[in-house]
Amino acid sequence: MEFYIGPPRETGTVYTTQIGHEDFAAIPRVDARLAAGPGAENGDVSLEGALAFRRDWLRERGISPAQACLLRVSGDSMCPTLNDGDLVMIDERRTTIRNRHVYALIDTDGAARVKRLDLVDNEMIILTSDNPDYPTETRRGPDMNHIRILGEIVWSAHSWQGV
């Protein structure tokens, strides 16, 4: 019998490598897009590689490499926070809405999106774009319960292509 007290243990496969004397974990890049706008239909998704992140950096931020993935942002509704083409890391364990945080989600129509979320009295979810050109959206009642939170955005990399 084993008794453990501490942060959640890693589950799943995590590929590691060492560069110099630092340990790195490979976070998978998924061939899918999160729409910063009306929504992206991804169909079948596959892995398109991985990026290495220092394990101590991930640990300090409470990110489990086994429950994190990288996806691309498509659209400009989250500008200036996230731009079209940016790469984001999703922590799939963080699915409880913390107001004003940015999340990847599957909306009621099945489209993958990235939005800033607010939960109001467990009766309404507000989806906000950081770009003021896009209107705020709400989901209430049954629609609210059909949103699936994929995880919180915990890191992003800006793409300079086309700039």
UniProtKB/TrEMBL annotation:
Keyword vocabulary terms for this entry: DNA-binding, Hydrolase, Protease, Transcription, Transcription regulation
InterPro entries given in the database record: LexA-like (IPR039418), LexA/Signal_pep-like_sf (IPR036286), Pept_S26A_signal_pept_1_Ser-AS (IPR019756), Peptidase_S24_S26A/B/C (IPR015927)
Domain of life: Bacteria
Domain Peptidase S24/S26A/S26B/S26C: 33-154
Transmembrane segment boundaries: none
Pfam families referenced in this protein's UniProt entry, alphabetically: Peptidase_S24
Coiled-coil segments on the chain, per record: none
Keyword DNA-binding: yes
GO MF entries: DNA binding; serine-type endopeptidase activity
One GO location term (cellular component): membrane
SUPFAM superfamilies: LexA/Signal peptidase (SSF51306)
One Gene Ontology biological process: proteolysis
Name of the protein in its database record: Phage repressor protein C, contains Cro/C1-type HTH and peptisase s24 domains
